[in-house]
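Handoff note, outgoing to incoming analyst
You'll be picking up this chain. Sequence as last confirmed:
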Amino acid sequence: MKNAFIIIALLFSAQCAFSQSISPAEDDEFCPLQDITFTVTLPRILDNTVPSVASYTNGPIIITGILPGSIKNTPTQTTCTFVGRFRDVNINQVFIVSYQTSSNPSAYSLFSFKKIKSLFYNITSSTTCKPLQLNIASVTVPRCQIVNIPINFQNIQWSTFGENPAYCFGTITTYEYLLPKNWSIGNSTSDGTSWIKAGNNVTVTSDFSNGINGSI
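Most recent structure output, in case you need it:
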C-alpha cells in the first residue's frame, strides 16, 4: 500500500507540473504594440469546448481570440494559441484564459507580464531602478569656436510602474539627443528639430554661431 501511495503522489505531482503555462514566457521582455502569438498549455479541457481569452488587469490587447483549429488535446493537457499585444505602458498587463475541465466548469488561468519595454511612466528614483544621470548639467562654449563636449552616463534599465518593491529589468542602450542647429554627434548634424540616435557615451560638437542659450 505504501508503494502504491508513492506512485499516485508522483503522478499527481507530474500533472500539476504542466497544469498551465504560456509561451513566450511571462518573464520574457516585450516591446509594446507588436502582435505576439501566444501558445497556452492548460489542464485537459472538456471535450467539445473552446477556451476563451480576455484582457484582464491593465488592459493588454486581444488581436485574435483562441481559434478552435489551434486546440490540441492529449489525455492530460490542452494547448491552444491566440494573438495579443501589449499597450505602450510600462505596467503589469494580464491576460485571463477561461476554460472548462471535467471537474471544474469555471476554471481560469491568469498570465501576468511585467516586462513591457515602455517609457510611459517615468522611472522613480530607488536603489534598484536609477534615473538617467548625466556627467554634466550644463556647458559653456566660447563663441566662434568649435568645441567637442563629452557627454556620458550609465545606461538605465526599464522599469515597471506601481511595483513594490521596485521592479526593473533589462538595459536601455539607445538614446535620442536634440541639439542646437548645426551641432553634431559624429557624422549626424542637427537641424535643430530632429532627434539624433546615439549611445550613452557621445561627443557633441558645437557650431561656430548657433546654440546661444540653447539646450541639449
